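Trying the structure run again after the queue cleared.
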Amino acid sequence: MGGKERREKILSLMGEAGGPISGERLAKLLGVSRQVIVQDIALLRTAGYDIIATNKGYFCASLAEVSRVFHVNHGADEIVEELNIIVDFGGIAVDVFVEHEPYGELRARLDVHTRREVQEFMESINSGNSSPLLTITCGDHYHTVRAATEELLDEIGEELDRHGFLKAP
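Done. Tokens:
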């Protein structure tokens, strides 16, 4: 398999993974070294693909075709339910942000793709000396969500609304 074919296969594997895929896993699947994968990722980025390296592997944000910002409000005890709705309907919780009166916009990257990552995120929140951003705005916050289609984003919005999380525009 040539380099061009291999890079196309990397993009395909990223799209099918439903979340980050490690360089080690890509190397094993493609029968090349980890260093070859690193070089291919660099070439794909140069070609304009928005590939993000996370502690769990690589994720190609540009493969998720559409995104939408959802304005939501709920308590800290409902974070798991909210994020699970997003990932269960095929979305990716890209970030969370709040509009804080004195500080302005405060934003944190999430890149949560799966229920497992939701759980890991919550374990991280619960084990640290910090609290979720929503606590500084009485539950009011926003999520940028990516999905393959507008229809999936519509379904996510409907489900968030059905659970009472979505704020009226």
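Strands lie at 51-54, 57-60, 66-73, 92-100, 104-112, 140-147. Worth checking whether this holds up in the mutant runs.
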